[in-house]
Write a structure and sequence with these properties.
Elements lengths: L2 E3 L5 E3 H12 L4 E7 L5 E7 L3 H7 L1 E3 L25 E5 L5 E4 L4 E9 L10 H14 L3 E6 L1 E8 L5 E3 L8 H6 L1 H13 L4 E6 L5 E6 L4 H21 L3 E3 L15 E7 L2 E2 L12 H21 L5 H4 L9 E6 L4 E6 L11 E4 L8 H17 L17 H7 L2 E2 L4 H9 L2 H7 L1 H18 L4 H8 L4
The protein binds glutamic acid and magnesium ion.
Length: 462
Amino acid sequence: MVAAMGDNGANVAADQLASADQLAGAGLRMLAGTIVDNAGVTRTKVIPVARLRQATESGVGLSPVFAVMCADDGITESASYGGPAGDMRLVPDLTAAVLVDAATGLGWAPLNQFDQELRPMEICSRQVLARVTDFAAAAGIGYRMSFETEFTLFRPDGQGGWTFAHEGPGYSLRALIDAEAFVAELLAAMEEAGLGTELLHPEYTPGQMEVSVAPAAPVAAADRLVLTRLLIARTARRHGLRASFAPVIVPGDVGNGCHLHFSAESDGVPLFGGGGGRCGMTAKGEHLVAGLVAAVGEMAGLLAPSALSFTRLVPGHWSGAYACWGVENREAAVRFIEGTVTSRPGSANCELKCMDHAANPYLAAAAVIATTQDGLQRALPLPDPVGEAPDSIPEAERQRRGIFRLPPDLGTALDSMEKSPLLRSALGEGLLGAFVAVHRYELAAFAGRPEQEVAAALRWRY
Ligand code: GLU
Ligand code: MG
């Protein structure tokens, strides 16, 4: 990266300043910079175009208390965060910025969190992911990732409330046609934003839709998820509709997942296909998957961290409630996808199914890299794949085969996450402490309330 002098004489990467000028030239008037916080909420600061160069040099301010801000906007505390004093500097990464709407001048960019000396903050999930990615690259492994976005689309019910924008049937043409104008504009906006949209379909439950985008390097993939959700929410609004990314809309029904697909390579050679191991995996690929399967129980609190997440994460909902892997098995937390005969080995990938939109995608991706790297370093053997629904296997046989249910509730999941040395070292003590504090607060705030009430309270938060 080439450094250049900014307007204040500060050292700013030349590509950031060039991007600022390019965005301004293209009609940008206001940049919505975003962070995803520990609650999974996307928070924003809007930077007017005239302040953009300055923001790339010294950032814009935000209280560090956002490390412990909760989904209901309550503020809790951890060992290191919670007081009213202090300031962070949020610096937009303009190389990832996108002009969302040339007519209104709205743009978007992810923000990195720094302290006032412009040193990276330990709670900056985006920089945590960059660091873990670099660590893996130094060990010779590169990752590509993509997050699938399931969401539920609502329309006004005519009485001041909201009802489903389609009534199904799941995956049907009927459901698509009910949402056609929204879909057309969304796909155009995603194309314009360079997201490389791969597929869209009406999903299983009323109002539910799904869209998937092209894989990218880990930080870019998490950025793409944030941008995808922005475009979905915004396009819905423009059509008088509303999109919810909450893990559960109707308790008991199938929920909204945010599945993380990833593949890995070493020296340009794919590790999940074209090898001599299980399902065409290479030996390294097997260790990577083994590391994830071994740690996915500890990761549940990170991947499905809301008071609603464990209402979704139950057997029979294709949300991957068991710690095991299987080929194309939608009930396994880790689903291995071999690709078709024409697309192997490049398209073979792993899908982490248990994640939902309350997770911070930067932290989820960092945990995937850390746990798979751990599997590789320890040369963990890959257990046998599971071909059936794990819930249909008798308990004794499950134990013998090493298949475990993910923690059944948020409290247990957070306990297990807190005790994980692997997550502690990957995410850092201060961040892990703040993350767990946020979700323990959420657990207490919603304790004893009927699931339906929790679903209603969290419907529009993510
Ligand atoms: N909606 C399901 C979930 O909660 C996933 C369905 C699918 O396999 O696409 O994760
Ligand atoms: Mg789906």
